[in-house]
Amino acid sequence: MDASWPRETPGTSKSILDIGEPYFVACVTGDLATARCLRRLGVPWGPDGQVFLDAAAAGHATAPLPLLRWLLEEGCPVDYDVMLEWGASTPQRAAKVLLLLMEHLGRQELEHDEQ
Fold first, then answer.
1. Residue 97: which domain range?
2. What would the pLDDT profile of 38-63 be if each residue is shown by its tens digit?
3. Is 43 a domain residue?
4. Which terminus of the chain is more solvent-facing, meaning fewer CB atoms within 10 Å of its CB: N or C?
C-alpha cells in the first residue's frame, strides 16, 4: 500500500484498512490489479455491505460494472435491502447494478442447490 495513505481514519482510531477504503479507491478508479492485490494480502472488506454500496452508489465516483461483478465474485458482503432502497432512489445507474446483483444471487442459489 502507498506510504502516503493515512494509517487511521481522521477523527477515529479505525484503520483505513478496517473501513474498506482501499477497495473503494481501487474500484472507482478501475484498478482491478490493486483490488486483486488487496484480496491476496487479506485486506478486510470493512463494514458489511459498505464497500459494495460505496463503489456502486457514490455520487461523485462509481466503479465500472466489471469491478462490481469482481467484488461479488470475491465474496464482498452486500446488504441487499440497502441496495434495493438505493435502487428506488437512483433508477438509471441502479438498474444495471441491481441486475448484476440479481444475476449473482441466482448463481449463488444454483450453487447452493447443487451441493
1. 20-114
2. 999 999 999 889 999 999 987 767 88
3. yes
4. C
